[in-house]
Amino acid sequence: QVQLVESGGGLVQAGGSLRLSCAASGRTFSLYNIGWFRQAPGKERELVAIISRAANTYYADAMKGRFTISRDNAKNTVSLEANSLKPEDTAVYFCAASPYFPNTDSSTYAFWGQGTQVTVSS
Q1: How wide is the angle at C-alpha 107 spanned by C-alphas 87 and 2, nearest 5°?
Q2: Does the structure show a pLDDT above 80 at 98?
């Protein structure tokens, strides 16, 4: 098993940047592929990016260019850098773990964090 805790969210003005972190506990973290998802009020959860155990990356088409995912297995962390943020990026951002890559189906991820709120003001 792996436990995930997100941090780094907050309030930012449009055009600004944030760096979200997903900290994992458990010795098996390096065996999992980690995805970042987001969910805005009244909307379905959507994929942002995924990083594999070997640090291969996959981005949802709408997220390419402004989001960068990375991982540090030695520190059991996955980061998501978000740049040029827009009000429509406002959402709760979640990280999740899956044994499969690239797994774009959020319903099949086994472990989830509690989420971190990102609010982008115009």
Answers
A1: 95
A2: yes
Tokens representing 109 are: 């991820």
Q: Quick check: 1 pLDDT over 90?
A: no
Cα torsion 44, 49, 53, 57: sign? positive
1 class by beta-carbon count within 10 Å (0-12 exposed, 13-18 middle, 19+ buried): exposed
Rounded to whole angstroms, the Cα distance separating 51 from 119 reads 24
Distance CA 34, CA 11 (A): 24
Closest C-alpha to 104, from 39, 53, 36, 42: 36
- Return all residues near 102 (Cβ < 8 A) that are at least 6 apart: 33, 50, 52, 58
Structure tokens at 12: 């930012």
